[in-house]
């Protein structure tokens, strides 16, 4: 789906997910990149690693373009 065009997958009521960039692929297909804010539900525990995976039968690619953190 060419990086899931914004009109197909974006829901404006989700305050932790927002459309960060839109453009086109080299083939001219629409593409989108989303930014997601994840709040650690256990802030007293340090985050020592991050792992991304899609479901076994998901028709998706999961990748990370950047990561930043704020220490409380």
Structure description:
By secondary structure, this protein is mainly β. The chain has a domain of 31 residues. 6% of the residues lie in helices and 21% in strands. The chain has one helix and two strands. The chain has a two-stranded antiparallel sheet. Strand 1 and strand 2 form a beta hairpin. The chain is extended.
What is Rg?
15 Å
User: Separation of termini?
Assistant: 38 Å
Q: List the strand order in the largest sheet.
A: 1-2
Strand content: 15-25%
Structural class call reads mainly beta
Helical residues, percent: under 10%
In total, the number of strands is 2
Look at the structure and give the mean pLDDT: 77
Which regions are unreliable across 5 or more consecutive residues at pLDDT < 50? none
Largest sheet: 2 strands, antiparallel
Judging from the principal axes of the Cα atoms, what is the shape? Answer: extended
- Helix segment tally: 1
* H/E topology pattern: HEE
What's the layout of helices and strands?
Elements: H1 6-9, E1 17-24, E2 30-36
Antiparallel strand pairs: 1-2
Describe, in short, the structure shown.
The protein is mainly beta.
Keywords for this entry:
two-stranded antiparallel sheet; 6% helix; mainly beta; extended; 72 residues
